[in-house]
Amino acid sequence: MLLLALAAAVALWRRAHPHSRCFARGAAKPRHGSCSPSPLSLNKGLLEAERYTPNPQYSALAAVGDALPAPALPRARLRLLNELGEGCFGKVFKGELLATEGGGVMETVAVKVLKDAASAEAEQDFLREVETMSAFRHPNILRLVGVVERDGECRPWMVFEYMPHGDLAEVLRNNSRTLWRPMPGLAPLTQEALLSVARQVAAGMRYLAEQRFVHRDLACRNCLVGAGLVVKIADFGMSRDVYTCDYYKVVLGARPLPVRWMSPESIMYGRFTLESDVWSFGVVLWEIYSLGRQPYYGHSNEEVMKLIVQGIMLSCPEGCPAAVREVMRACWKTEPRDRLRFHEVHERLVKAEEEAAAAAATATAVAAAEAEAAAVPTTPPSTSDDTTTPASENALSPTGVESPPSLDDPCRAAGASTSSGAGGLPQPPGRVPLAQLRARAAELLDGENYLLPQQPPPQPREYLQPLPD
Predict the structure, then answer these.
(1) Residues at the annotated binding site?
(2) What is the pTM of this model?
(3) Percent of the chain scored above 90 by pLDDT?
């Protein structure tokens, strides 16, 4: 009887763990079509399941040790406005936090409210999220303003800072070339702006990694955009209802998963680590530079899972800078240990942003110098004091009219009394060439350049009668 009971226990354990024989240490490799959960070949020891057992330092509660208690807010100080989104167990409203009960508005906020139909487990998850979010203090992580505690039948509320432009995926799509709808308060996205967005997301994920916090659902839909294109990482848990096509239930009845952003080990073994977040960040980079396209668009979720585990990756978007392309590919290494760490990702993007800014400044300086050089007028040719006139000057003027004779030209001036000038008008008689006037001027002036008195010419004597012989 003892042996029979032992055999029954072993059979029940194997039924509860159908893949235990496939991934046991030192076990033979499974043949294709056996209990292997994916078509990915596991030769060379790649992606072995025992490497991805749960690690307590990767839990969300690892950051709660340094958490500060969330400020408690009176429910009367909150005024709910319009609804922003809805999830399975809660809604998010735009609201106003009042300075005092019935007083003026102190801050515009986003309020996450649990539904009345939410289970006790959902409420525990809600409170756990409050504890986790209260531990984070970073400019690229959504700030928790406070919490409204349960009051009798009233469910607790979470109060976050309000990001006026919504999620990053929508901002990118609104600024795409095919769906051009400029958003009020945001300039069109340039290459410099896209690089700034990527760097901000990397900064936020670097902070979370330093807190040993695994996000598990990093995507542009879970990043919010504020004034001045400030990007902050968040996860209200509402995106599964808004972006239903981005989530897929791998197992019937299980929680839907964002398979298009998941790493091979997350798809195969359901393990989420800091390294799997790095993989997801590579997909976020692809989203940013494709202006909000869905990863692997045109393929079903089942096809996407097969593509990922077979190592068929996304191609880099057109116009993606070389530095960003290198980071993207380094995030998609098959082996998690070969991927970049978030501090390396952030440092590379900071360097790329600095180099892009320096190149833009140089190009601006060169363009300004060229414009200034083009605005300087050319120096006209110097005139000559030579009294001779070149033969080419006898040609017609640009207007087609012969130029009048110059006063400095004695040859032309000598015959000017009998010739016609410009327009066919006769020249006045007794015209003296300028050269002769200059010679006579010395005779008409004294030593102090005063005009000398002139003697009038004698009048001719007129005779009334002829002289005698």
Answers:
(1) 112
(2) 0.66
(3) 38
